[in-house]
Design brief:
By secondary structure, the protein is an alpha/beta fold. About 45% of the residues lie in helices and about 10% in strands. The chain contains 15 helices and 10 strands. It has helices at about 45-55, 70-85, 100-115, 130-135, 140-155, 170-185, 200-220, 235-245, 265-275, 285-295, 320-330, 335, 360-370, 380-390, 395-405, and strands spanning about 25-30, 60-65, 95-100, 120-125, 160-165, 190-195, 225-230, 250, 315, 355. The chain has an 8-stranded parallel barrel with strand order 1-2-3-4-5-6-7-8, surrounded by 7 helices. Strands 9-10 form a two-stranded parallel ribbon. It is elongated and about 80 Å long. The two termini are about 45 Å apart.
């Protein structure tokens, strides 16, 4: 009998296949950048708490839980979420966004001292020439804001991730000056941002590689983050490229919600890293994470969304279903989950689903009936098969049961 590892030839790997020699960390931006989408609702605090727990269950390391400088509601929600992390002994740690302005950082320091938890401060400033021109900033002003913000945060015992917005359209000179200044003032992480979704995978690799050299030149132990958007549909590919170039923490949001088109999809990032063998997280909570966020922010999950979409593991096509059924009849669950699926459903707490429709064969009908404990009598199978062939859609359970009851 053939071994499972002999049944799939994987062109995605080579003998020299690259794997990270560092732990990949995840920063979930769902509760900050995610709810900046113009089409979502800012969830009630009870739902935010539930989402926070699901992030922790998935093995996500940090969560951006808000921008306290935005006002009283943001301050209140961040305070409650920090207390929840402490009281529930969650493993993930909190961070908050802030402009490079003291009035944005002060409320983070106050919450941190009040609650008794370190809150990483993600202090950001635009770095590209186009942003400089629009804002009438000089590089000297940008460096001054950087020094003041990072120094103030460090003095208040706040770990700092220094963020350059629009890094993917910034000059090497500005990037170098800004990051070196932030590191000199005590920033322990720096974040490379594709704020408007401009980058390609090649550009991402080039930029992160350049930033890694800057960090190496300082001689400091500073982590590199990647924060990407999906305006060109390249968000996920760019995130994978950033990791290859040396980014040790990657940002994303559930379902990719966020500004304009949105962010890197945290769920799909986790899926691909799991399939690459780069992480070993238990991802069986992934469907609950996505569904909970979708309900909380009031957006539908597309039917054809990878892995957690309604159609991800469904088939009504005869050829496809027959192969799955043959594998099941062999008693080989591993085979059944992969013979017509590049993503094994079992890794995410899901399973393959066989439906009955106009493209089905009789094997679909027989399997559907047996799965529900209904004897596949010859005439019943023929009748359902004829009904399916006359239909212009996959039959619903209600339609099938109605036929069975009338048979």
């Amino acid at each position: 009998m053939q071994k499972h590892n002999e049944l799939i030839y994987d062109w995605n790997t080579t003998k020299e296949d690259w794997k990270p020699n560092f732990q990949i960390l995840f920063d979930d931006e769902t509760l900050r950048d995610g709810i900046q989408s113009p089409s979502v609702f800012d969830p009630e605090i009870e739902k935010k708490i539930k989402i926070l727990h699901l992030m922790d269950e998935l093995g996500i390391h940090t969560a951006n839980i808000g921008l306290p400088g935005a006002g009283p509601r943001a301050v209140e929600d961040v305070t409650v979420l920090c207390r929840e992390i402490i009281s529930s002994k969650l493993k993930l740690t909190p961070n908050c966004a802030a402009r490079t302005l003291l009035k944005d950082i002060e409320p983070i320091a106050q919450i941190s001292q009040k609650v008794g938890i370190a809150i990483e401060t993600c202090t950001f400033i635009g770095s590209s020439p186009i942003r400089q021109f629009a804002e009438n900033w000089t590089i000297e002003q940008m460096l001054t804001h950087t020094r003041e913000a990072v120094t103030f945060a460090v003095k208040n015992n706040l770990p700092v991730m220094y963020v350059t917005e629009d890094t993917t359209r910034a000059t090497p000179e500005n990037i170098s000056k800004l990051y070196k200044t932030a590191i000199e003032c005590g920033a322990k992480r720096i974040c490379v941002c594709d704020t408007v979704g401009h980058a390609t995978p090649e550009g991402t690799f080039n930029l992160v590689s350049f930033v890694k050299k800057i960090v190496d030149e300082t001689g400091e132990d500073v982590g590199i983050d990647w924060h990407g958007h999906s305006d060109r549909g390249l968000g996920l590919a760019n995130a994978l490229s950033a990791i290859k170039a040396g980014a040790t923490r990657v940002h994303g949001t559930a379902l990719g919600i966020g500004e304009r088109i949105g962010n890197v999809q945290m769920d799909l990032l986790l899926v691909n890293l799991k399939l690459n063998g780069w992480i070993n997280n238990d991802l069986t909570a992934l469907p609950r994470y996505c569904q909970t966020v979708a309900e909380a922010v009031k957006i539908p999950i597309p039917l054809n969304y990878p892995v957690i979409g309604h159609d991800a593991f469904r088939t009504g096509t005869g050829v496809h279903a027959a192969a799955v059924i043959k594998a099941i009849n062999k008693g080989d669950h591993w085979l059944a989950d992969r013979v017509y699926s590049g993503v094994p459903a079992e890794l995410f707490g899901l399973h393959q689903i066989i439906e009955i429709g106009p493209m089905s064969g009789e094997s679909n009908v027989i399997f559907w009936l047996e799965k529900r404990g209904i004897k596949p009598e010859k005439e019943l199978v023929k009748g359902l098969f004829a009904l399916a062939k006359a239909s212009n859609h996959v039959l619903t359970d209600e339609e099938i049961y109605r036929f069975i009851n009338q048979f």
